[in-house]
Amino acid sequence: MPSRESYEVHKEEKSLVQKAKREANQEDILVAALGMSMGPQKPPATFWQPLKLFAYSQLTSLVRRATLKESDRTPKSEKVHNFKVHTFRGPHWCEHCASFMWGLMAQGVKCADCGLNVHKQCQSLVPNDCKPDLRHIRKVYSCDLTTLVKAYNTARPMVVDMCIREIESRGLKSEGLYRISGFSDSVEEVKMAFDKDGEKADISVNAYEDINIITGALKLYLRDLPVPIISYDAYPGFIEAAMLTDPEKKLEAFREALALLPPSHRETLKYLMAHLKRVTQNEKFNLMNAENLAIIFGPTLMRAPNLDAITALNDIRYQRQVVELLIKKEDVLF
């Protein structure tokens, strides 16, 4: 009768044989997948490890790309990739064409918002299907609006929602609302809190008693946007609409201009205008009407796209008219 010790040795040998067979099968599959041909003599074990890493990297890239294509085929809001030249460590494959990225430095580009890796020559072929990942979003202020809402999966930026809720809960009757500035150091504190804690930022009355600090933080967020709420593409349409004198044609032109806004921008503008309308309904207390608010928010929501100084200066009065009409006609335009 065999001893327990010899039984354990036999069991271990059998396990090692099965493992060797599995690895041999994996190696045969890997050779076939890479289109390689091997002679009768097998290469040493050290030959296979880099190839397995290569294959794993390629498989990961292909699966990731397939996932991007399968999920959300018709996104609510298109998002352009924010590609930056990148030096990759270790083997990498292009997630668009699935070809190897050759070179030791600056082999390709990486999306700063979602982490997609592609060749430099492939970046123009990639569809506008960026799905930002919170791991790549380093701050809230100065972050592209569409990038932020897609990363947090919200309709509007958290700063806009949270600040407006706070203002409406305790500040609608505050005299000079949005006209009076809050203490700049405190406004900067709120900004840093959003950048650090996101939705967990504390902007309650216990943290900031002065409501003007919260209005200042909201205005600063809107000013810091790399693409303003009224985007550069839609800007000319709004200015042209403001120049019209016929009321019906003007409203129709405004609707056409609103249709040019990215969905997240339009949703944010709609929410903001409804809020400013409620501010004007408390004019008896806060002394702020649509014209006053338009003077404040005109340059904040609209910025002239690469226009000369004289044209930009002339546009200021039309910017005010645009925002004033959006506030007054909020109920029929949105």
UniProtKB/TrEMBL annotation:
<dbReference type="GO" id="GO:0008270">
    <property type="term" value="F:zinc ion binding"/>
</dbReference>
<dbReference type="Pfam" id="PF00130">
    <property type="entry name" value="C1_1"/>
</dbReference>
<keyword id="KW-0343">GTPase activation</keyword>
<keyword id="KW-0863">Zinc-finger</keyword>
<dbReference type="InterPro" id="IPR020454">
    <property type="entry name" value="DAG/PE-bd"/>
</dbReference>
<dbReference type="InterPro" id="IPR000198">
    <property type="entry name" value="RhoGAP_dom"/>
</dbReference>
<keyword id="KW-0472">Membrane</keyword>
<feature type="region of interest" description="Disordered">
    <location>
        <begin position="1"/>
        <end position="21"/>
    </location>
</feature>
<dbReference type="GO" id="GO:0007165">
    <property type="term" value="P:signal transduction"/>
</dbReference>
<dbReference type="Pfam" id="PF00620">
    <property type="entry name" value="RhoGAP"/>
</dbReference>
<dbReference type="InterPro" id="IPR046349">
    <property type="entry name" value="C1-like_sf"/>
</dbReference>
<dbReference type="InterPro" id="IPR008936">
    <property type="entry name" value="Rho_GTPase_activation_prot"/>
</dbReference>
<feature type="domain" description="Rho-GAP">
    <location>
        <begin position="143"/>
        <end position="334"/>
    </location>
</feature>
<feature type="domain" description="Phorbol-ester/DAG-type">
    <location>
        <begin position="80"/>
        <end position="130"/>
    </location>
</feature>
<dbReference type="GO" id="GO:0016020">
    <property type="term" value="C:membrane"/>
</dbReference>
<protein>
    <recommendedName>
        <fullName>Beta-chimaerin</fullName>
    </recommendedName>
</protein>
<dbReference type="InterPro" id="IPR002219">
    <property type="entry name" value="PKC_DAG/PE"/>
</dbReference>
<dbReference type="InterPro" id="IPR051854">
    <property type="entry name" value="Rho-type_GAP"/>
</dbReference>
<keyword id="KW-0479">Metal-binding</keyword>
<dbReference type="GO" id="GO:0005096">
    <property type="term" value="F:GTPase activator activity"/>
</dbReference>
<keyword id="KW-0862">Zinc</keyword>
